[in-house]
Structure prediction request, 322 residues.
Amino acid sequence: MLIKRAADIPSSEITDKKVYLDRRAFMRGAAGTAAAAAVGLLGSRTAEAQRIQAAPHGRLLQNVKPSPLSTTEAKNSWQQITTYNNFLEFGPDKDSPAQYAGMLKPAPWSVAVEGECNKPAVWNLEDILKGQTLEERVYRHRCVEAWSMVIPWVGFPLADFIRKCEPTSNAKFIEFTTLNDPRQMPGVRSTVLRWPYLDALRMDEAMHPLAILAVGLYGEVLPNQNGAPVRLVVPWKYGYKSIKSIVKIRFLATQPLTVWEVAVPDEYGFYANVNPAVDHPRWSQATERRLPEFFMRKTLPFNGYADQVASLYTGMDLKKNF
Ligand code: MTE
Prediction:
């Protein structure tokens, strides 16, 4: 996520000195790899081969069914998906989450459900998953910074969980909140955002079958840097809507302000639908770079999911409601 103020904050303010110096050393080493990836030198190996090379990573998830809603496009490798991340709670750089997310304890984990629903509760993640079929959803992932990947998430429809909470007819929006713990997340000591990270969807968006809660990646438990143990994935929206490490869900009658609307309202809107016709104030959204490719490709409306989701926005001016 590019934000105006990020450059003004020295990384040394976010981490203690030793960690900061170690990080500079790591980044010098990583720079060569990143450059090779950028020119596509790594692209010759298949994604699967790269994944297996780096295995084992974590715990395998059992009984994961393939989903017909998956794209058949070539998947990014485990390595790419888990080392080039946005997770500002662990620092401002793409490699910060892979370095520091080990500080996060993803178990035990609970999610509080509040607001306009008949079943407010504090759920253990295990209870949320009990009896829930897990699916592999291979989705295109388009970041607002004009890069994209293809990611084999493991998850389940957000709608399944929403039904268990029994939202009332007053519930028009659903708001998600990330953990905010400076002991586990060094980045929350910075003032780059108003913590906790918070985002929201309209209820009909949230109930759409493409919207999932993800708990895994490549058949394995979700790595911390990708939002362990549970994150949202909304594939027709820019990646910043897909909030990580969720600890609270609230059903609301009115539209809340999201963390990015508070931080930079003229750049990051509530809807965040991938829209090649609406430029970001500082760059075009018409094209994107599918990492690790070099050349840009055309960005598709709703990230290629228009057939499934465009009807949610009938009658809305999507230039105004960006
Ligand atoms: N969620 C939290 N809590 N904090 C973040 O900084 N970054 C968002 C989103 N969810 C972010 C977050 C952005 S800008 C993107 S592009 C995606 O996570 C990145 O997901 P990935 O690292 O798994 O690719």
Notes: The two ends are 16 Å apart (CA to CA). The longest strand covers residues 147-157.
